[in-house]
Amino acid sequence: MIKKIIVPVMAIATVFVSIASVPFTAYAADKYYNQQIKMISTETGKNTEISSDKAIEIAMADAGYTKDDAIYAMSEKDDEEKIYEVEFRIGFVEYEYEISAVNGRILKRVIND
Q1: R_g (Cα) of the chain, nearest Å
Q2: What number of H helices and E strands is found in the chain?
Q3: How far, in Å, CA of 64 to CA of 113, rounded?
Q4: 46-97 residue pLDDT tens
Q5: CA–CA gap between residue 100 and residue 79 (Å, rounded)
Q6: CA–CA separation, 15 and 28 (whole Å)
Q7: Total number of domains in the chain
């Protein structure tokens, strides 16, 4: 009798924990992004632009990867618009980002499967 009650209760608890963790994951990612922006403005000051490596790091963190995961990662700076165009490949998927050189914000994200 106890086994019949415990199994459904555990199943319901597992589903609840899984559902409850989705908003937390989104919150954690947003919190991480905001911390990165604060670090950029602290490290670089208000008038200094971020580096090419930092732009790649921001784009890859947004996609959930690190530089070590990439087959290739590169960035090119458009000085006129103060934007880094970042490209990297993970497996067969290519990611393209536009990152503000001024504050590190993601301006555009394209994922090519």
Answers
A1: 20
A2: 2, 4
A3: 16
A4: 558 999 999 999 999 999 999 899 988 999 998 888 999 999 999 999 999 9
A5: 11
A6: 20
A7: 1
